[in-house]
């Protein structure tokens, strides 16, 4: 790692008249301090001749180590205005630490994060004024440093006077304590103090002893815990999210700089007393009542987590301890907090978070809110009835008339109670009914990432004898390409869409399954049937017939418009049709009237489309494959985003070649290709332009012995990459130039 200080030192040394390598070494040794001085002394005392190059190389190795880089985030977060330096010194230090902590951060994100941290690093009195100034006119860190210098010239005198005044008061108190002790000497001449050696008082009353307060403090805050992923921090202010805590939906502040998570007294149930002391960033101590073990719901998981209970708290604070517990990835660019239990939506203000159906692009036009209120009955959640549409019924035609008796599968004893519980829930909700059928498919429970179980029926044998009636199904790329010129989006997630369709009465018996001594069959279309996607697609085609600016993929209905006024009309038409069909929408997974939305593993908005960071991170975390099956899985997941990467298939050709041979042998070339593909998958750079009808397209092509590549663009911005890899044949020179 190259660092600029050696050249700067030589230039200064020459300027002040220090000549010769020996003289420079002597001056350098006198100037170094702390850890750097220890490194210098170790070289000087090791014997032999110490040269300037050796010292520079040793210092570079010491301060450029990975451990030093890991400490940079913590130092960045805890950096404060130095006593012996000014705002400009702080600005330079913050810039150095951030570039060391996040070397690949883009310029815009770096500037915003530096400005945000600088405001937090100056004294509280100056920080409040900076926030007001910066809110009116956003500034970079150098401009903030200049303003801070001006503000401090006005406030430094009062602060200094206050400190001096406190110092004088403390001295007066000490003098009074000594005088009181001296007055008592006459009455207690035989009393001896074992603290100061004087007489007339005891050790416990000695005026030379300062009373100590034993307080447990939480001051181990770090920038962000090392296992807490941070993706593209570009936000300037506080961010909020909705979380269910103690069976209440609460708007919470996300504060990665807070060491502990806080909650108000009225928002928790049982409080255990404790002796904690919690200080704010301004040094004020909060009144703490104790700790409350609260139930936090994330997705399908329930987490028992201790919150510190305090007063003067309008909203709970999710601190670094909670974010570390749920292994959070804070993605402010895409407005999400991704945890191991599911994702939370980030809002830029608590007012927006209070609205269950957020409308971030239409805050000035309440029509979208009125529209959502008008169709409020369509938005349902857990515990509420499912919709039912009988305009399309699922059929299961069999290829032959012979009834097959499918093999059963025993449910493990320790899971029988869970199976019975879920069966009773489905009976209550009208999803299944008791049966007497010659068919019987096996039941199994699949463990979900959150530790809970999904009830599944293995319909593979039934699917093998089913006569399918396929229909045209859209691809992800086709769906995304149709969102042309749109600026406002709504994504309506049909709640458990399959369960809102009935099965034809005569075909219900074919879905039968047995739990212990009872048999059941599905009344609604279950997951796992081979023909289910086609039936659901037919319903969606009928549902959205003659409606403009709407697409559907699976159970996601996407409404897109160029203006807010048009969007209200388009959304109302879709909601009206959904109401007529008797369907219901998942209120927790829908996105209403947004400038950008999460759709089919992508972030779409502002004329761009990009993959979700958590999806890319999952691919990057895949271990080196040790079989063809695992290699095929890796290539399948990575190739899903090949349209974002130039010459993907040509680059991945060595890995595809491993799939064609009879023996799997992992080579150095395969290792290099594997790592290269991972490095290419960078969500910050994988951005494509949405198609714009009417604009000129440009196609650039290229070919080599290893593959063919092409780039489709509009106005010098890439719309899509394409490539292929001819494994078993070479490309003729005449065709390369075509």
TrEMBL record:
Claim: Nuclease is one of the keywords in the record: yes
Stored PROSITE patterns: ASP_PROTEASE, RT_POL, ZF_CCHC
Gene Ontology MF: a single term: aspartic-type endopeptidase activity
Gene3D superfamilies according to UniProt: 3.30.70.270, Acid Proteases (2.40.70.10), HIV Type 1 Reverse Transcriptase, subunit A, domain 1 (3.10.10.10), Zinc finger, CCHC-type (4.10.60.10)
Keywords (A to Z) from UniProt: Aspartyl protease, Coiled coil, DNA integration, DNA-binding, Endonuclease, Hydrolase, Magnesium, Metal-binding, Multifunctional enzyme, Nuclease, Nucleotidyltransferase, Protease, RNA-binding, Transferase, Zinc, Zinc-finger
Alphabetical GO biological process terms: DNA integration; proteolysis
Annotated ranges, domain Reverse transcriptase: 427-604
Domain CCHC-type: 192-207
Coiled coil (UniProt feature): 159-186
Pfam families: gag-asp_proteas (PF13975), RT_RNaseH_2 (PF17919), RVT_1 (PF00078), zf-CCHC (PF00098)
PANTHER family: PROTEIN CBG26694 (PTHR37984), PROTEIN NYNRIN-LIKE (PTHR37984:SF5)
Protein name in the entry: Reverse transcriptase domain-containing protein
Biological source species: Schistosoma haematobium
